[in-house]
Amino acid sequence: MTITFHQVLHDELPTVLNLFKEAAEKIAKKHIDHWQYWKNPPAEKTEWVQDGINKNEYFFIKNTNHATIGMVRILNEDILYWGEQKEPALYVHSLIVKEAYNGSGLGKLVLEAVAGQAKSKQRKFLRLDADSKNPKLCKYYENLGFNKVGEKTLPLSTYNLYEKTIL
Description:
It is a single chain. It contains five helices and seven strands. Strands 1-2-3-4-5-7-6 form a seven-stranded mixed β-sheet, with helices on both faces. By secondary structure, the chain is an alpha+beta fold. It has a single domain (about 5-165), classed as Aminopeptidase (3-Layer(aba) Sandwich), CATH 3.40.630. The model has no long low-confidence stretch (mean pLDDT about 95). This is GNAT family N-acetyltransferase. Pfam families: Acetyltransf_1 (PF00583). One of its GO terms (molecular function) is acyltransferase activity, transferring groups other than amino-acyl groups.
């Protein structure tokens, strides 16, 4: 599968929030208490997304037919979850694959593409987090070679912090 990343534009906040809501509904069907706040996001989460859009960190993932099949946020730093870091890294948040593309290898493909960006930018690590209440997702990242290096507790949940060495 060939994918491309398309910058999310300022007026596309409703589309981004809808992708989060769809993902929350998909996760709820699996009886996992993860991301359920996206069904009716609190103001601080909506502001967090808007800030990321303003900083050009959000991308729609499109297939060869230009259909949006997912979304990802790519950051150069992640103070909220990781704090100040000495080693250069790229950070992944909000990786969403539309339900119709589950099991297609799209998540792995996206992470490989972002790892390629990290390498080209001379970043030592690719980092991400996963809600600790979603053990299947945590295992998925571990199976892709990410190592759990810590935890971060925030008001809505506790998150496992993962990194993968790139360089």
